[in-house]
Amino acid sequence: MSVRELVVLGTASQVPTRHRNHNGYLLRWDGQGVLFDPGEGTQRQMLRAGVAAHDIHRICVTHFHGDHSLGLAGVIQRINLDQVPHPVTAHYPASGQHFFERLRYATAYRETVKLDEGPVAADGPLAVTDAYTLDARRLSHPVESYGYRLTEPDGRRILPERLAAHGIKGPDVGRLQREGVLNGVTLDDVSEVRRGQRFAFVMDTRLCDGVHALADGADMLVIESTFLDEDVRLATDHGHLTAGQAAAVARDAGVRHLVLTHFSQRYSEPAEFERQARAVGFEGELSIAQDLMRVPVPKRT
Predict the structure, then answer these.
(1) CB-neighbour burial class of residue 220 (10 A; exposed 0-12, middle 13-18, buried 19+)
(2) What's this model's pTM, rounded to 2 decimal places?
(3) CB 127 within 8 A of CB 134
(4) Residues with Cβ within 8 Å of residue 285, at least 6 apart in sequence
(5) Tens of pLDDT along the chain (301 residues)?
(6) Interatomic CA distance for residues 164 and 46, integer angstroms
(7) Residues marked as catalytic
(8) Contact 292, 275 (CB under 8 A)
(9) 226/25 Cα distance (integer angstroms)
(10) Is 296 helix (H, G, I), strand (E, B) or coil?
């Protein structure tokens, strides 16, 4: 059975706390797994969340601050220790190539798995698979940072009432789907476009064009909200978003499920992030991320 869900491994900003690990997020997308921003402690959080190295097919690092990348060394070595049977591709800002190499070869180990490197140097597509297209967009942070977006190809939804109107049933339905036309009836005549699902991942950034482009029409948006709105000056100075800013982006982009994360340790009451997100008028599903929680990607409409 296909599964599309976000597994939250860590949610802390800058430093871990007693209740929040460094960042780490695994997106399960049918049979594929995309690991975003593995901070320190990710390997242990994977164990606690029931995530195996075999679940990882792609690693996406937004930028090379420690809370988003220090776990790379352990994760890469675990992938090799467990002899993952498929290639793994790592994406990261090209300007941080030296950081990636240092983390990849932080200590001695035996390489058993093909790890492809896909550095990101500009906006645009990074990979096209049968399941999704992966794109990157530049963000606004003191170091080079990119957000990521998965877009499923559009499909078609068969409409039973149109099939009946044309007298098509049984094996002829499958034949029409395969061949696109049957006795003068086209697939367009009996179906409609089913928009592919969209997932966006936005970490450390100020408001910028890239944030809006990634969020546009997303079924699920995972986005940092390091600060509360009263600390907006701090957020801007340090290259971050507030809860209200992140939720306003989601509101304007038509996001269906908003996941707020990457919280500063200065705050002890997560409910305030939800209150501020709702105060700007976001009315979709809303999750305040907690370590080890699982969040299903909304079903297709």
Answers:
(1) buried
(2) 0.93
(3) yes
(4) 256, 257, 258, 298
(5) 579 999 999 999 999 999 999 999 999 999 999 999 999 999 999 999 999 999 999 999 999 999 999 999 999 999 999 999 999 999 999 999 999 999 999 999 999 999 999 999 999 999 999 999 999 999 999 999 999 999 999 988 899 999 999 999 999 999 999 999 999 998 999 889 999 999 999 999 999 999 999 999 999 999 999 999 999 999 999 999 999 999 999 999 999 999 999 999 999 888 999 999 999 999 999 999 999 999 999 998 7
(6) 49
(7) 67
(8) no
(9) 16
(10) strand
CA angle 16, 22, 28 (to 5 degrees): 150
- The secondary element (H helix, E strand) that includes residue 221 is strand 220-224
* Cβ neighbours of 299 (radius 10 Å): 9
What are the distances in angstroms from CA 39 to CA 71, 148, 193, 219, 275? 4, 17, 39, 25, 28
CA atoms within 13 A on the CB side of 138: 9
Residues in the chain: 301
- SS3 of residue 174 by DSSP: helix
Per residue in 246-285, pLDDT tens? 999 999 999 999 999 999 999 988 899 999 999 999 999 9
**The residue to which tokens 């960042």 are assigned:** 23
Report d(CA 258, CA 247) in Å as an integer: 8
Closest listed residue to residue 239, CA positions, set 22, 62, 24, 37: 62
Residues contacting residue 238 through CB under 8 Å, at least 6 positions apart? 142, 226
